Backbone:
């Protein structure tokens, strides 16, 4: 089992000081990119994208190229041996032996952690199903650092698909670690944030409330994080259609917002922000996408330079338990050791953080 590399699976595996160093390195690279043009000369980054991506994949690739390194990988698994039935373990084992750092995106929660178990180089989670997206969070944090000048004492509204939106989950986990942040969780009852996130907010003593109306909340916000409804994660098209046009940020609504509101969006946008809002100086989402490249340059540098490895699995292995989440990687790749941790008195899967139940009762 691989344990000797510094992976980035969940930002919360690292202390806040580590994130702050990545963010300030990202800011320095943004200010002086020419100083870093040879920083990764001779290094190879592999990108394994089992799900569509524009920004995450291209910003990682351009980050490595701007650092003087090279890139390999696929963005269509069906053009690789995955189409022949190869599992995550074997693909990761081989590709990581060709490269110095491996970036992986997959529709199943927990895949990056599963990949890291066998990888022979650092693994970065570029989105694991509806679970987490830590490098989007680094992007969001660099954007707030640059544009708001702080990461604390902010009233942050998160709006849209809070259930399946992995960027929301990672961002809440991260911002809850800075003092004085308050959260307004704006969604329909069907798309409320998962329980493990509200539990975590409660445990870290963060003030938060759920809200169904963007109109009601917008005036009190310092940051508004809009998200797309995650069509591909719904069990049926009818459920998606019922949710799809509920929230829309318009120039009319922006009139009620603070003059220094920061509007963020991980992108892609569908209809949840009217195009005319793009001309409002408070709309920061395109700048945010650009900061993403600089923070990924910083992340690549830190992970390649790091000499300390974090343990990947902390909990206990118990083959008599299983995870309830059908979209957890353990439901697909049966060789993975079943590992569980205790969170707020509940036993949860260590790969996807969903509930564990006795295997005999479930399958
Ligand atoms: C997000 C993602 O893939 O989770 N996009 C991104 O990486 N910038 C958001 C989304 O797809 O809605």
Residues:
């Amino acid at each position: 089992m691989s344990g000797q590399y510094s992976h980035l699976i969940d930002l919360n595996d690292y202390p806040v000081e580590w994130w702050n160093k990545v963010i300030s390195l990202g800011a320095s690279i943004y200010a002086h990119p020419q100083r870093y043009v040879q920083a990764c000369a001779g290094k190879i980054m592999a990108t394994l994208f089992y799900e569509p991506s524009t920004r995450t994949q291209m910003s990682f690739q351009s980050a490595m190229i701007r650092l003087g390194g090279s890139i390999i990988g696929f963005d269509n698994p069906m053009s690789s041996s995955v189409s022949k039935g190869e599992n995550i373990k074997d693909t990761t084992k081989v590709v990581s032996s060709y490269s110095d750092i491996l970036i992986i995106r997959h529709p199943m929660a927990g895949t990056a952690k599963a990949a890291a178990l066998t990888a022979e180089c650092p693994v970065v989670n570029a989105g694991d199903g509806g679970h987490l997206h830590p490098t989007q969070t680094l992007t969001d944090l660099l954007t707030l650092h640059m544009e708001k000048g702080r990461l604390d004492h902010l009233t942050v509204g998160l709006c849209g698909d809070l259930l399946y939106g992995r960027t929301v989950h990672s961002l809440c986990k991260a911002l809850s670690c800075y003092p004085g942040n308050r959260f307004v969780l704006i969604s329909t009852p069907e798309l409320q944030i998962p329980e493990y996130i509200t539990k975590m907010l409660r445990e870290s003593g963060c003030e938060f409330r759920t809200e169904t109306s963007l109109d009601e909340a917008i005036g009190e916000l310092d940051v508004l994080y809009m998200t797309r409804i995650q069509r591909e994660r719904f069990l049926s098209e009818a459920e998606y259609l019922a949710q799809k046009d509920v929230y829309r940020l318009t120039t009319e609504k922006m009139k009620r917002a603070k003059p220094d509101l920061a509007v963020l969006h991980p992108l892609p946008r569908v209809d949840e922000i009217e195009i005319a809002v793009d001309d409002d100086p408070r709309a920061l989402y395109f700048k945010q996408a650009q900061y993403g490249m600089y923070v990924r340059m910083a992340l690549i540098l830190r992970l390649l330079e790091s000499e300390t490895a974090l343990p990947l699995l902390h909990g206990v292995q118990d083959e008599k338990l299983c995870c309830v989440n059908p979209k957890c990687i353990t439901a697909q790749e049966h060789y993975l050791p079943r590992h569980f941790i205790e969170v707020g008195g509940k036993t949860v899967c260590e790969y996807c953080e969903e509930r564990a139940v006795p295997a005999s009762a479930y399958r």
